[in-house]
Amino acid sequence: MNIREITTSSLDPQRFIADQVQKISSAVGSGLAVNALSGGVDSSVVTMLGYKALGDRLKTYFIDNALMRENEPQKVVAVFQQLGVHVELIDARDEFLRALKGITDPEQKREAVTQTFYKHVFGRLVRGSGARHLLQGTILTDVDETVAGIKRQHNVFEQLGIDPQEAFGYQILEPLIQIRKDGVRKVAQALGLPESIYGRMPFPGPALAARIIGEATPAKLALVRRATAITEAELSGTPAFQYMAILHEDRVTGMRGGRRDFGFQIEIRCWESIDAREARPTRLPWETLENLSRRILAEVPGVVSVTYNIATKPPSTMEVV
Ligand code: XMP
């Protein structure tokens, strides 16, 4: 594996865009290509590059996997609609929830989301589309982390030496493989994507399932989704790298209305980091933490405990799954 890095300082976004559009055009020829859009900066840039190269011969799907944040599918589709790019919203919530049922082990949870996504939902869409090319937003850091064996990523079959043609029946094009996240953000801006996309905080592939300790049930997803919305609203003014709400598996004794209440625990994490390889908790003002706690206790049903993580990565990781 020999990938030539284009460093962010040497990256010329307009030239990069022109080169990648040309490469996609010549690879796909007169055929069709497909891609899955998550709304993250990588898949958003890939969608724009593919659209520039192929117009409506690119089929872009947003797959609602039941693990997204509040109104996320609709918001992402609307952003692209504004740019003239049609994105088809696929409701696969039941299929993902069925696959996650009863699973508590973190790696098995990741595996269930990945397999449901590729083998079943997206695989089916790709096979049905008649396209032979799949555009994917793998970046150089994904390759590095997979090679280092730190955490399994979902988008690196080719780098792992698995022939994607054989594994899933299609050919993968990875236009971002030579650049890193800050480079992708520069390209996103040059493509005219809005700040909500190019400045977007990272969000993991397994989505809210990565923020539930234990089984990701519909009820627990609803809890962590609400807590996430509150956390993102309350912390949106901080320059932190990433912030999140986590739902614990263990319940604890609390009291509500003068009675004992065995309730849920929410943990808040807010990270300072350059590239997610190392991170430390932000020294949030006490008032900010108090507001967060007050809102979560009042607005997320059944929560009796709110904590703030003060451990660094390493040995912690940023997500809990
Ligand atoms: P960890 O938890 O490994 O996270 O310290 C480091 C950064 O990566 C994000 N993350 C993911 N991103 N797919 C992604 O695209 C994933 O499966 C995934 N898992 C973790 C995490 O949010 C953090 O920014």
In short:
By secondary structure, the chain is an alpha/beta fold. Helix content is 41%, strand content 17%. Xanthosine-5'-monophosphate (XMP) binds next to loops.
Descriptive labels:
single chain, alpha/beta, 11 helices, globular, binds xanthosine-5'-monophosphate
What is the mean pLDDT? 92
In the predicted model, the low-confidence regions spanning at least 5 consecutive residues are: none
Global shape: globular
Helix-strand sequence: HEHEHEHHEHHEHHHEEEEHE
Helix fraction bin:
40-55%
What molecules are bound to this protein? xanthosine-5'-monophosphate
Report the portion of residues in β strands: 15-25%
- Global structural class: alpha/beta
In total, the number of strands is 10
Distance between the termini: 29 Å
Strands in their spatial order, largest beta sheet: 3-2-1-4-5
Helix count? 11
- Major β-sheet profile: 5 strands, parallel
Kindly describe this structure:
The protein has helices at 13-28, 41-54, 72-82, 93-100, 106-129, 140-147, 164-168, 181-190, 195-198, 218-235, 286-299, and strands spanning 33-36, 58-64, 87-91, 133-135, 171-173, 242-247, 252-256, 259-272, 280-281, 303-308. It is of the alpha/beta class and 321 residues long. The strands form two sheets. Strands 3-2-1-4-5 form a five-stranded parallel β-sheet, sandwiched between helices. The longest helix has 24 residues, at 106-129. The structure holds xanthosine-5'-monophosphate. Residues 151, 153-154, 202, 204-206, 210, 242, 276, 313, 317-319 line the site of xanthosine-5'-monophosphate.
